[in-house]
Amino acid sequence: MAILRNVFRSSGGLQGWTVTFPPQWKQQDSVNCGIFMCSAVENEVQKHTVTAEPLTLSQCRTLRVHHASEIMKSIDPEDFPPTFIESIEMEKKENKLQETELKKTDSSIHCLAWKIRACLFQRATGKTFVFHDHIKTYKWVQCTSCKNWLHFQCAGLPEDWNESEFFCGCSLHSDIDNLVESVEAVDIITDADIKVLEQKLQTGDILSNRMYLWKHKGLDLAIRKHYSEQVTAFNDITTDVLIKRLENILLVPGSGLVDQRMITEVILPEAVIHWLQSTINLCHYQAEMVLLRTVKDNEGNHKVQQKQGTEKVKLFQQKIDT
Ligand SMILES: [Zn+2]
Ligand SMILES: [Zn+2]
């Protein structure tokens, strides 16, 4: 109770509480706590009454197999990560495909968004087909400032866009961080727009790699994992409130159309991108960059990728010029 009090000291009000727990099997070693934890939860849920008897190592081993097989049962085979050997094979194939693509001037590898794996028409890792392959022709736009190229869709431009200058956001000096930090969760998107956004993502009116990978589970686990690490640009509190709002509006009991995981994996990041595009006027690529920037752990990798990418785009431009 003293520990709990310390943990919740800022939220206060624990004085009136007492902690009770049903009798649990007793752990005698220092390594099997996970097994006891899972067993305690299962016993509680299944309403099994147990006594505080100590369990032997052999009993622990039986329980370990039991819990492991239960966990495996609920894994979707399509979500099952590739084995080490499969990953290496995939990487080899991917590198080869990239080499070939560099020589083709119309390949998506030359899209600025590809470098952060946000290009809407990128190839699935190690495969030969591209996302959203129902779209057959692509329009390209070049940034007036940095001279990089983007697909119209990756830039977030409408089909009939016809201006003389486009800026990808590379020369943007507005204080994005301050705007991101100061916005309230209620002001990010209206309730009505949440519904519209979800519908447009479902129908494909808004092209989204996250939704595409959600609908084609198992297609590219590497990219799906990459996206699942960058779902918000906001701090934890704002993000939590936003998720609650999305859940309140989209989780219709019994409909089964939208589930909690889809909200955090697809709708949340797309709502953040929607806000960055509509409120701060960022292009689609730049909005994805803001999400990526919030993933501090990957900063090192990202810099390396960017350097490689810049060289590739130069190559592409030379080809276009000649
Ligand atoms: Zn693109
Ligand atoms: Zn630019």
Task: Provide structural commentary.
This protein is globular. Strand 1 (140-142) and strand 2 form a beta hairpin. The protein has helices at residues 2-7, 33-45, 57-73, 84-102, 152-155, 176-182, 185-188, 191-203, 209-215, 221-228, 236-250, 260-279, 284-293, 299-321; strands at residues 140-142, 149-151. It is mainly α. The chain has a two-stranded antiparallel ribbon with strand order 1-2. Helices cover 52% and strands 2% of the residues. The protein contains 14 helices and two strands; from the N terminus they run H-H-H-H-E-E-H-H-H-H-H-H-H-H-H-H. Among the domains are: 19-67, no CATH class; 173-281, no CATH class. Mean pLDDT is 85; it is low at 297-322. The chain binds zinc ion (ZN) (2 copies). One zinc ion is lined by residues 143, 145-146, 148, 167-168, 170. One zinc ion binds next to strand 2.
Task: List strands and helices in order, with pairings.
Blueprint: H1 2-7, H2 33-45, H3 57-73, H4 84-102, E1 140-142, E2 149-151, H5 152-155, H6 176-182, H7 185-188, H8 191-203, H9 209-215, H10 221-228, H11 236-250, H12 260-279, H13 284-293, H14 299-321
Antiparallel strand pairs: 1-2
Helix pairs in contact: 2-3, 8-11, 8-12, 11-12, 12-13
One zinc ion is lined by residues 143, 145-146, 148, 167-168, 170.
